[in-house]
Amino acid sequence: MRAVVLTYHSHNIAGAAYGSNDHVALASDLRAIARCGARIVPLERIVEALLEGLPGDGIEVGLTFDDGPCFDYADFDHRAFGPQRSFLNILRDFRAEAGSGAQPDLHATSFVIASPEARRAMERADECGYADIPGWLADTWWNDAIDSGLMAIGNHSWDHVHHAVERVAVCTDARDDFSRVETYDDADREIRQAAAYIRSRTRGRCRFFAYPFGHVNRYLAEDYLPGRRSEHGMAAAFAVEGRAIAPDDSIWRIPRLVCGHDWRSPDALEALVAGSP
């Protein structure tokens, strides 16, 4: 079996075309995935298959959304590029167009940032792009997204060690580098604390972790995450390595491909999904 996990960012809007707008890309890619004969499945299915060594035939695709803007869930008007269909509604549109039988397991996971203070700081930061939209990183939509049956909420750390946040949880001055989270105390603050908060807001529904920026180190992937599972409660972790999943990959650093970085056209996406040269 071939397994691929794709990543989109709903705040990635720099135009109205495929290569500059992840909303446009996602809508197109759902059709491209179907053309490849691939099955879109929840991340649970991907993890279960990897634990078994990816047996069987066919292609399975997982969909993930990073950072947790409310644009994952709700339509909005972009100040420069007009109305934008939310990722969740794009999934609904595809199901209505193709029929529920076309992709019966259609699903995606939105990896969200836990800290309310960190999210507010990013909301206000001009460099994050949406200071004109109050609450664009709010957590009020999380449960409704889960209840839709088409989306799960995952853990994207406490504060993303983001440069816009005045005080991050880790004991280092480094920003925008999650590989510097390499002690138990720092990992506990960034991962376990985040999981606890997200579960408190989602009636306990949070199972997977995604490394901010895709940054992985040996301590997190080989020590903290597998060894402290009873504490943080995560069942698997997703990195960003620009390739399909291999049968011997660890469930603590499952690779993903990123829209706009690893592919920039429908044809490129079809080649990645199908494994064409």
Radius of gyration (CA) equals 18 Å
Number of domains: 1
Largest sheet: 6 strands, parallel
Give the class-level CATH name: Alpha Beta
- The H-level CATH homologous superfamily, spelled out, is Glycoside hydrolase/deacetylase
Number of helices: 9
Shape: globular
Strand content: 15-25%
Q: CATH topology, anyone?
A: TIM Barrel
Round the mean pLDDT to the nearest integer and report it. Answer: 97
Number of DSSP strands? 10
End-to-end distance, in Å? 17 Å
Question: Describe it for me?
Answer:
This protein is an alpha/beta fold. It has one domain: Glycoside hydrolase/deacetylase (TIM Barrel, Alpha-Beta Barrel), CATH 3.20.20. Helices cover 33% and strands 15% of the residues. It contains nine helices and ten strands. The strands form three sheets. Strands 1, 2, 3, 6, 7 and 10 form a six-stranded parallel beta sheet that branches. Strands 4-5 form a two-stranded antiparallel ribbon. Strands 8-9 form a two-stranded parallel ribbon. Strand 4 and strand 5 form a beta hairpin. Helix 1 packs across helix 9. It is globular and about 50 Å long. 44% of the residues are buried.
